[in-house]
Structures are given as C-alpha cells and as structure tokens.
Amino acid sequence: MAGFTVAIVGRPNVGKSTLFNRLLEQRRAIVDDQSGVTRDRQYGIADWNGKSFNVIDTGGFVTNSDDVFEREIRKQAKVAMDEANVLIFMVDVSTGITDLDTDVANLLRRTSKPVYLVVNKVDNAQRQLEANEFYSLGFENTFFLSSMSGSGTGELLDAVVSHITDDMEDPSLEADVPKIAIIGQPNVGKSSLLNALVGADRNIVSDIAGTTRDTIHTRYNMYQKDFILIDTAGIRRKQKVNEDLEFYSVIRAIKAVDEADVVMLLLDAEKGITAQDLSIFSLAARKGKGVVVLVNKWDLVEKSTNTARDYEKELKGRLAPFSDVPIIFTSVIEKQRIFKAIEAALDVYENRLRRVQTARLNEVMLKAIEAYHPPVVRGVPIRIKYVTQLPTHTPAFAFFCNLPDDVKAPYRNYLENQLRSNFNFSGVPVKIFFRKK
Ligand code: GDP
Ligand code: GDP
C-alpha cells in the first residue's frame, strides 16, 4: 500500500513527542540526550481500527540553535505540507496562543490538505474552557487533547484514518515487477549509482511519470531482468530549497520504502552505519520489506586480508537481530559490484516471495524441534505439533502448539534461525506466530 503519512507540527514543548509516542504501536523510550536531538522520536508506524499509517514528529528534526529556530519550524511545516497526507497542528492551552502559533497557522491555512488543530494539555474542565480561545485560529477541525492521559486521542485518530481509503492501494500496472528503493544519507552515492546504471544500459524501458508520486520510478531491463528502481536522490535535487533538510530526505525515504519490495540501503564505507540508517533499516524490516546493504565508496577504504570480513561482522552486529542480510561492498565510481548489488536485490525479491511446501516445512522444522525442545513451563512441556506458512505478502509462519503464549524470544529466535538456515530468506524479515492447535 502506498504510504499514508501524518505529520505533527508545532512549536517546542507543546507535547508533540508525547502524542507521537502515544500513537505508535510500540512505545519507544525517549532518550533525553544532551544535544536535545532524540533520534527515536522522529517517525514510526501507528495502527488504528485496522488501518496503519506513518507518523512523523517534525519536532524530532529541529535542532536547538536559537537563531534559526523559528525559521526551522516554519520550514518543517512547509515540508510537512508538501509531503504529508494529513497534518496535525499542535498548540498548548497552558501558554495560550503565541506569535509562532499564529505564524504557523497562517502557513498551514494555505494547504488544501486536511489540517487538524490539536489543543494539547487540556487535562481538566478549567483548561477545557481556556482551550476555546484557539477557535480564533480559524481551523474547522479542532480537537482538545490531553496527550499525557490520552483523552481525546480516539476522536482525533478516527478523523485521521477516515482519510485512508482502500483505493489508496497503488493500482500500478507493473505489480509483478520487482521494485527496489535506493535509500541512503546524502552523498553516499545514490545518484552516482543511478547514473552508472543508466550509462551501462541502453534499455531503460521508461521513466514512469507519477502524477501522485513523489519518488521517481524508472523501469530497467538489464541482465535479462526486469525491475524498477525507486529514486529519492533525483527529487532532492529538483527542490533545491529543501536540499539540506534532513526531515525532507527522511520523509521521502519513508515513502520510497512504502512503495518498494526491496530496500537497497547505501552506506558510506568510511563513515559506517548511522543512527538514521538504522532507523530506516528497522522501519523497512517492520514493514516487511526485503533489504540489501551496500557499503559504497569501498575504494576509499584501505584494505588488508580480512578488512571486508571484519567490516561485515561488525556491521551485522549493528543490524542484529535482523542480520541475515546481503552486504555488498561496492564502488560506484569504479563500477565495482554494481551488477552484483542489483542481483542481490533481485534474489532478495525472490526470497520474499518464497513459499515453502507444508510437507517439506514440517519435515525440516519438526526435526529441528526434536533436536532442541521448547522449554517446560510450570511442569508442562510445550509441544509444537505442526507448522504452516501463512498466505501473506511477506514470509510468516504459524507454529501450532499447546501453550502458544509461553513460547519466549529465545526459542522463537531458534526457530527463525532454523528457518533461515534451511530455506533461503536472506534479506527478508520473517514473522513467526504461535497458535493454539
Ligand atoms: P514537544 O517538544 O512538542 O515534543 O513536547 P513534549 O512532548 O516533549 O512535551 C513537553 C512537555 O509537556 C513535557 O514535560 C510533557 O510531559 C508535557 N505534556 C505533554 N502533553 C501533556 C498533556 O497533555 N498535559 C500536560 N499537563 N502536560 C503535557
Ligand atoms: P547522493 O547524494 O547519495 O546521490 O550521492 P552522489 O551520487 O551525489 O555522490 C556524492 C559524492 O560521492 C560524489 O562526489 C560522488 O562522485 C562520490 N561517490 C559516489 N560513489 C562513490 C564511490 O564509490 N567511491 C568514491 N570514492 N566516491 C563516490
């Protein structure tokens, strides 16, 4: 499904990250580090009434340098207006309307996209009265919330997800063609990679012009393979104004991940993997996308016998627990292993489609279970009788057993490792469920 994105904008301390955390399916700890930039509060996936969407906390992208502060918030709001499907504009009843609130309100009034004004910290009846002041900002959709207690969030979410309709499913004609998104920090070599591919190949089928798309899809036919590359780099160049805005590239990356089957994550070999790379990596995994990691600019690394092996080991440590991922050392500039990278991505695409026959699955997995039994819980042995692969888009397996709630992470990991070592799921997140038989 094409990504549906909700952005929370507003000045600092109104409670954006409090709401953000509330909306996420998994609450994440916010680490209040010295710099004031907390990585994990930037984006996540929320679910409401069976509909899922991306939530972006624009506050997570604002750095605390006073001179550029107000300008930055305005910039975030502008990007959110361009990129998000729905905007939540948050204000704080305890401070009343500030000049910056009025500024942002004036900006947001220009968009045709739905804007929900959320008056936060409406914790009690007194504040309910005070909150009425904010109607003067003139937003049709106004909600009073207490993000801390959660009161009012249900109504807000109902309103937000009413914009997610079934026909948002991307009705693309090339449904069976593998889609590979090229993602990575600025300057890792994304454009160079695309240019190298264009240079090597005269058979680009078409630039698929997207009317509603914000990413560029280009269809290739090379090495006897048909595939689509989703490019976020080129677009960044088109919109020079926002070129160095981290928020802008992140929101584009999230969209590209949503549209892709496989994410090709480029790293700069000299810099290594960054926190932002890891966030995108785990987002891709949680969305069930395939992943290939390219360690680019490998030409710049001084090498001895074990350099690649050691590098890979260290990198896999960072990617854990999902470390069964192809890692390719490339030099786009020297055209080294570019074909291999594309091949790896297409292999991952195939792995993601893999369906293991039930008989074969049971033969292998029951043997593995026999070799290493699940633990005994309260004197009762857990018995797994039967395994089946579920008919889902990305590989998922159900293990039928007597005490499904009592199988814990270590044994789950054992089963996943067994699946991975017996069937090739390299680069693919695998889901495992335990069900009552
Ligand atoms: P952000 O900078 O906009 O992301 O704001 P935060 O989420 O970090 O919140 C700023 C402060 O407001 C924190 O101390 C929160 O605990 C507090 N806060 C957030 N929501 C509420 C609320 O609904 N009621 C009250 N009383 N305080 C809140
Ligand atoms: P993007 O921002 O990710 O699209 O990165 P670019 O493709 O614009 O590349 C940024 C810079 O890195 C350019 O100067 C490239 O020439 C350089 N570059 C890209 N790939 C490689 C590589 O494999 N090796 C080296 N040494 N430089 C590279």
UniProtKB/TrEMBL annotation:
Residues involved in GTP 1 binding: 10-17, 57-61, 120-123
PROSITE patterns referenced in this protein's UniProt entry, alphabetically: G_ENGA (PS51712)
Keywords linked to the UniProt accession: GTP-binding, Nucleotide-binding, Repeat, Ribosome biogenesis
Entry GO MF terms: GTP binding; ribosome binding
Domain (EngA-type G): residue spans on this chain: 4-168, 178-353
Pfam families associated with the record: KH_dom-like, MMR_HSR1
GO annotation (BP), single: ribosome biogenesis
The keyword Transmembrane is annotated on this UniProt entry: no
Matching InterPro entries: G_ENGA (IPR031166), GTP-bd (IPR006073), GTPase_Der (IPR016484), KH_dom-like (IPR032859), KH_dom-like_a/b (IPR015946), P-loop_NTPase (IPR027417), Small_GTP-bd (IPR005225)
Chain positions recorded as GTP 2 binding sites: 184-191, 231-235, 296-299
Keyword Membrane appears in the UniProt entry: no
Superkingdom, natural source: Bacteria
Family: Belongs to the TRAFAC class TrmE-Era-EngA-EngB-Septin-like GTPase superfamily. EngA (Der) GTPase family.
The protein's assembly and partners: Associates with the 50S ribosomal subunit.
Function: GTPase that plays an essential role in the late steps of ribosome biogenesis.
Protein name: GTPase Der
